[in-house]
Write a sequence for this structure.
């Protein structure tokens, strides 16, 4: 089982540097006061395409041979990986076909198409993964959303940035979908600074890692019921499960309502609009607040901000007892 190495991640950083942003980290006074510790926000939602996924997409696609580039790439995604692959393919002059479930929010579909990719809808995300394997058999290069050593290495470059930007860091909260971001970031951080604690986060209805850890093996979810669609991998990879066992303190599973309440706080107080897949890190910090004190330095990775206004209004109406036409 080939997990990325620190050398893989360092090489990825140099490789993708011309194509991605180094996103800012800010200490948040309101959250620091609220939790009695030092809280920092890694604003990866300001990354190109609005999420961390371009790091891995570029690293994987820059390693393709000329023959592979000529064949084109195919990808499966509920949103952010779709945009990342489409954008990277456009920048590198590669044809891209993206397989997306039919319940994908319209803003993800529109953005992916706007980058020039061909979008094919499938009934479910599981069907999209199955269809991608068919395309790979036909000769397309499959850029997996998380179960790929080079994709994971690209995502891990975020961890290198954190070590430089918050050298006193003691803790990191990170969302888990398929586990690629967690695996890359945890590998980078734990290799260079093993004393840093890493806390995984999922939402109910998209908790494939928590279920896998309990079962002792990869578990495939029958359906994704959480509003955090970008955490909606039907199962984590074996690589990610191994990384979770090796590196994580725990995986906290929060309710959608908690993630939306955290979205509201971040929008109103930090002035950033996140996805539920990112704001869930704040909800998890609330759950675990007794673990941290004045001497700790806690980073929340806000991994993406691709949420449509219509969805935001629906979340407010459903979870925050606000009128459907009001935004929290």
């Amino acid at each position: 089982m080939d997990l990325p190495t620190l050398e893989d991640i360092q090489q990825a950083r140099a490789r993708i540097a011309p194509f991605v942003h180094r996103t800012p980290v800010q200490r948040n006074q309101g959250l620091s006061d609220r939790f009695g510790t030092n809280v920092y926000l890694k604003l990866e939602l300001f990354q190109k395409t609005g999420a961390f996924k371009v790091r891995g997409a570029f690293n994987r696609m820059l390693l393709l041979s000329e023959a592979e580039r000529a064949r084109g790439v195919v990808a499966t995604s509920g949103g952010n990986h779709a945009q990342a692959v489409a954008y990277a393919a456009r920048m590198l002059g590669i044809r891209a076909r993206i397989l997306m479930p039919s319940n994908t929010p319209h803003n993800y579909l529109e953005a992916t198409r706007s980058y020039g990719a061909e979008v094919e809808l499938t009934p479910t995300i599981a069907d999209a993964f199955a269809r991608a394997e068919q395309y790979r058999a036909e000769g397309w290069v499959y850029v997996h959303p998380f179960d790929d050593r080079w994709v994971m290495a690209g995502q891990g470059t975020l961890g290198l940035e954190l070590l430089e930007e918050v050298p006193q860091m003691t803790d990191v909260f990170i969302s888990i979908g398929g586990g690629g971001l967690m695996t890359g970031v945890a590998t980078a951080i734990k290799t260079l600074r093993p004393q840093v604690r890493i806390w995984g986060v999922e939402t109910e209805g998209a908790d494939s890692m928590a279920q896998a850890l309990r079962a002792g093996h990869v578990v495939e979810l029958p359906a994704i019921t959480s509003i955090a669609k970008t955490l909606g991998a039907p199962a984590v990879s074996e690589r990610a499960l191994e990384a979770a066992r090796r590196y994580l303190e725990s995986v906290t599973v929060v309710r959608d309502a908690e993630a939306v309440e955290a979205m509201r706080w971040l929008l109103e107080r930090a002035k950033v609009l996140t996805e539920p897949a990112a704001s869930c890190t704040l909800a998890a910090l609330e759950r675990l607040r007794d673990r941290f004190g004045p001497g700790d330095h806690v980073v929340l990775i806000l991994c993406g901000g691709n949420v449509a206004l219509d969805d935001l209004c629906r979340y407010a109406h459903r979870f925050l007892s606000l009128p459907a036409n009001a935004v929290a």
Q: What stands out?
A: Strands lie at 25-27, 38-43, 73-76, 96-101, 118-122, 141-142, 171-175, 197-203, 248-254, 297-302.
